[in-house]
Amino acid sequence: MSKVLMKGNEAIAEAAIRAGCLNYFAYPITPQSEVAEYLSWRMAEVNGVFLQGESEVAVSYMIFGAAGAGVRVFTTSSSPGISLMSEGISYLCGAQLPAVFVNIMRGGPGLGGILPSQADYNQATRGVGHGDCRLLVMAPASVQEAAEMVMMAFPLAEKYRNPVMLLGDGLIGQMMEPVEFPDHLKSEPSNKDSWATNGIDHRNGTTRNLVRSLFLDPEALNNNNLILRAKYERMKAEEVRFEAYNTDGDYQVLIVSYGTMSRVCKTAINALKGQGIEVGLIRPQTLFPFPDVAIREAAAKPSCRTVLSIEMSMGQMVDDVERCLHGIRPVEWYGKCGGEVPTPEEIIDLVKASV
Amino acid sequence: MAKLFQRPKSMFDVSTHYCPGCTHGVIHRLVAETIDALDIRGRTVGIAPVGCAVMAYNYIDCDFQEAAHGRAPAMATGIKRVRPDLMVFTYQGDGDLASIGMGEIVHAANRGEKFTTIFVNNAIYGMTGGQMAPTTMPNQRTTTSPFGRKTEEVGMPIRMAELLATLRTPGYITRQTVIKPKHIQKAKKAIERAFVYQMENRCFSFVEVISTCPTNWGMTPKDAVQWAEDVLLPYYPLGDKKTPDREVTEKLVAAAGAA
């Protein structure tokens, strides 16, 4: 397929279909409602399921029911909506069900605003729901990458039988860029018959499947959490993704930034290069698992004096950057969280002030 | 010699955890008998609720999912929409369905989701330890209404069957009880009918079953039956509140009975 010009939200919707996900439940919320609008007619075209639920809470359990029945299913929402879905996400983790949640972030807390933000970093990477749950969190920086990550997200959710979250900001959802979609994937989890409530007859079996997250026996609950923990450790070993930019030569400053914010940083880095100042960038593509080793190694370069965590939040990822550096370099945070994206000029000034 | 009465094939051969005098066991049995009668065990998915019946899957032998508080109708919607060939039922208590899950049941019913809800109403929170429910009777004492339910503060008990029957979308809405043997056969017919409607992809079906909670009502099982009859049934009248299309329905139900 050749490249087409698409809005990020629409590309996410189309990518899900091409990922073989023909089941979508959602509740509208700005700035990602175009996903539901697109799929309201597109799912009909491909004989898929589209249903607008009565609330985000209900939607998260429609996702649970469908995932439990063994089909590929996803939803999209934005920050306040994800908060409402967080209960269901915890249940999905507890019951080990695969599903994909897309959060096109807007500013918060509370109703916040409707402009881009990255302020749900802590919520997404620390589990979202109650209990010891974690999500695999992917952060795209372009419409093309959003589409590709959606297509990666479903097999990953099924590999780990765990929800995967695509964490985009409002700009990724709203901007238009050329996008080329990878080939179609298969449409159902391959391992589902061992756990899904898809009907005993459907499995040609005699014993029933049970999807549950209640373990009243403390040892059983502890064991379930050990199983979950082992999955999260496996994600840390196998699923770390990041982009290194301008890290080949010597640089005095290392920037860590993701999503839309990282693109602004790249513009600043290119401008600074012209002025004789070298700056490296590590862009996490997975926020959980976090690219600890890559950041530590990039920061350990002898020329590197300082590390900047630049985010569209009041300083959330900076905690992870500090954590993985073990104090080998000073870390500073810079960001904004009202819906404005910091400009390249602001980043340039910031870097100049720190060298 | 033929056995006239035996454990339904869709029930595990185990003792239940329910208190003496509680009717969950009877209602479970009616559901299992219906699954057997319609021969649908291999394509049925139950949704277990929160509360006393959370472990319904330990007694009824078919695929099951375990719901969060009140969300069973949303989960059933998710399953049924992606797998319309499956038979899906939710089994919910009054705190679950009429309080925290009010939104989910009203919207699922109004969308005409093709699943079946068994709603067990015993006018109190059972497993949580006897707190006031939306269905608790005026002046009924509970652990959170120690002076009796004051309707001027918290309103009158919610009649779910009547409330859902106001929806314009076709549905089968009925109220039954199992407190005495004479009621049980009627309740069984209602549950069968509810499953048949689903089987024929006709409508959302809702069977409210007035039940007892001797432990949390602070009564003997015998007194609990009497209290249910004297106090609950006048406020929660039995019978069909709504049928989707009586004539066609009767034919379908008769055909299922004959098979």
Low-confidence spans of chain A: pLDDT under 50, at least 5 residues? none
Strand order of the largest sheet of chain B: 2-1-3-4-6-5-7
SSE string of chain B, helices as H and strands as E:
HEEHEHHEHHEHEHHEH
Oligomeric state of the chains?
heterodimer
Biggest sheet: strand arrangement of chain A: 4-5-7-6-13
Largest sheet of chain B: 7 strands, mixed
- Assign an overall shape of chain A: globular
Low-confidence spans of chain B: pLDDT under 50, at least 5 residues? none
Chain-averaged pLDDT of chain A: 96
Spatial separation of the terminal alpha carbons of chain A: 46 Å
**Structural class designation of chain B:** alpha/beta
Tell me the number of strands of chain B: 7
Describe the fold and architecture.
The complex is a heterodimer of chains A (355) and B (259). Chain A is an alpha/beta fold. In chain A, strands 4-5-7-6-13 form a five-stranded mixed β-sheet, with helices on both faces. A five-stranded mixed β-sheet of chain A has the order 10-12-11-14-15, with helices on both faces. In chain B, helix 7 links the parallel strand 5 and strand 6. The mean pLDDT of chain B is 95. Chain B has 259 residues and is an alpha/beta fold. Chain B has a seven-stranded mixed β-sheet, sandwiched between helices. Classes of the chains: A alpha/beta (355), B alpha/beta (259). At the A-B interface, helix 3, helix 4 and strand 9 of A face strand 1, strand 2, helix 2 and helix 4 of B.
